[in-house]
């Protein structure tokens, strides 16, 4: 059973990725959300090519962040918005991670949780984890 | 050089001291409510802003080996735009850029006050000659913990750590041993259920301890206290959160104080548990300004193992006034 689902997952992955890459190519707005600084880290580069998160995911993350930090509904958040710049402390970040786990039904490793500093990074991690979940 | 300025008139009105048995020098929790601020400098303090740093920042002797000096600012007490402008002149360009990145005036002001507190506090302890707070340089250790780059700027090798909430910013200073501090609003509401949160992040023993507290408000308060103690430990350790995930250690609350127990060392045998809970770190938990819990954690110097931590708390508005709040011992 386990080996069957692993095989089916590996078949699925490439097509999902190519869809994503084509999404990146088509939507000019996605390029604008990539900040220059991210090119310097190889980790960011990998995320950028393989797992640019869907705008819907970014939106859901933004909503959760706004709620946790009690920001007004019309606060302009971009995918590059940094949690710390919005006034999130460590307790807020942990609560945000918990809310994301509940919303997306995923489990975030503590080490990964710490690497999240922007909305984009949270969305990327979520999609990475959602994709890795065993096929239902 | 005076240890600290003496002031006439003693404490302000409405002082309350926590209960104390004369034979105890150790306090588990302590707070002092000072009803009205007592200014150490007279009310013409504003004119002193034109004078040199050595007068505006009264110098102090260094903390002794078992002492932590804890300084705090209440942002609501700092309103003068000229004072804030003076503070912004103390910051490096990188610090100014970071302040500008903060979204909203309140967050910008608090970020400015945080850097001001760090720079002015450290500058006070320079015994050789008055040090310009602007001249201090900072670096990060290999895990990202901010440290004073004391070698490059000819200053005393102090350890410091900062923590802030919306309404209070604190800075702890030690010599010889690393320090971590964390402050939290006592009334902070957790969006998730406290036990659910604790089960996800705290150790099993801490969850069990919290579960025994039936009153939700008391449980929430204990949760917050534990949070500050755990944060203070991780920050004192200085190796990032992945070096000590919250569920791998327990902060144990004893009649005498708080102890660190590493989860892997806790066994079924209660005698063994006690033996392994002298993790080499000292803790203090205090209440500040009647509104915040503050946890302080320092590494146990081998020579000092078991000795109490002395904490000296001062409230400050840099260049304007300093107020001694508390000098107490905290046992483990």
TrEMBL record, chain A:
One Gene Ontology cellular component: chloroplast
Described function: Carrier of the growing fatty acid chain in fatty acid biosynthesis.
HAMAP family per the UniProt record, alphabetical: Acyl_carrier (MF_01217)
UniProt subcellular location: Plastid, Chloroplast
Record-level Gene Ontology MF annotations: acyl carrier activity; phosphopantetheine binding
Species this chain originates from: Brassica carinata
Pathway(s) per entry: Lipid metabolism; fatty acid biosynthesis
Family of the protein in this entry: Belongs to the acyl carrier protein (ACP) family.
Entries under PANTHER family matching the protein: ACYL CARRIER PROTEIN, ACYL CARRIER PROTEIN 4, CHLOROPLASTIC
NCBIfam families linked to this entry: acyl_carrier (TIGR00517)
Nucleotidyltransferase keyword on record: no
Taxonomic lineage from the root: Eukaryota, Viridiplantae, Streptophyta, Embryophyta, Tracheophyta
Alphabetically ordered keywords of this record: Chloroplast, Fatty acid biosynthesis, Fatty acid metabolism, Lipid biosynthesis, Lipid metabolism, Phosphopantetheine, Phosphoprotein, Plastid, Transit peptide
Protein name, per record: Acyl carrier protein
Carrier domain: residues covered: 55-130
Highest taxon above the source species: Eukaryota
TrEMBL record, chain B:
Domain 4'-phosphopantetheinyl transferase: 178-262
Domain of life where this protein originates: Eukaryota
Record flagged with keyword rRNA-binding: no
Domain called 4'-phosphopantetheinyl transferase N-terminal: residue spans: 85-170
Tagged with keyword 4Fe-4S: no
Family matches, as InterPro entries: 4-PPantetheinyl_Trfase_dom, 4-PPantetheinyl_Trfase_dom_sf, AASDHPPT_N, P-Pant_transferase_sf
Swiss-Prot/TrEMBL keywords: Transferase
PANTHER family: 4'-PHOSPHOPANTETHEINYL TRANSFERASE SUPERFAMILY-RELATED (PTHR12215:SF15), PHOSPHOPANTETHEINE TRANSFERASE (PTHR12215)
UniProt-recorded name of the protein: holo-[acyl-carrier-protein] synthase
EC number: 2.7.8.7
Gene3D superfamilies: 4'-phosphopantetheinyl transferase domain (3.90.470.20)
GO biological process: lysine biosynthetic process via aminoadipic acid
Species whose genome carries this gene: Brassica carinata (Ethiopian mustard)
Gene Ontology CC: cytosol
Listed SUPFAM superfamilies: 4'-phosphopantetheinyl transferase
GO MF terms, alphabetically ordered: holo-[acyl-carrier-protein] synthase activity; magnesium ion binding
